[in-house]
Amino acid sequence: MIWFKDYKIDYLEGLRNANMGTHIGLELVELGADFIKGRMPVDERTTQPFGILHGGASCVLSETLGSVAAWMTIDPDKYRAVGIEINANHIRAVTEGFVIGTCTAMHTGRRTQVWQTDITEEATGKRVAISRLTVAIIEQGTLSAQKDKVVVE
Q1: pTM of this prediction?
Q2: Could you tell me the pLDDT band of residue 19, with boundaries at 50, 70 and 90?
Q3: Residue 153 annotated in active site
């Protein structure tokens, strides 16, 4: 197991309340020894004007899974995990149903981590997109709020 603690999926589901994941209907559905899976609907919240899955929604799925996964590998009393770069290749269009994101570590260093999310269509298992997220591991206290903005110091 690569996680800092013995996290359970029910606990992690609570992390997504009142944030982007809630708005798009993202659910955390499975946690393995070295991966996390999420499920996202393809509906009016996640499609672009032509009715297909929006690339930005795929990135939200990837960044959410990668950020949560990175956070699970560190001591949450001492550190924070923050995304610093994301990229995605959109491979095929999806117009309905759900997509599943499976996120695994490519690198889990002390200061940076890289997480890959393979996004597939739930009904067919066909790959929809693949995304890579780079995360910075920063000490607590290096994030501060200034006039409703988060600032990295």
Answers
A1: 0.90
A2: confident
A3: no
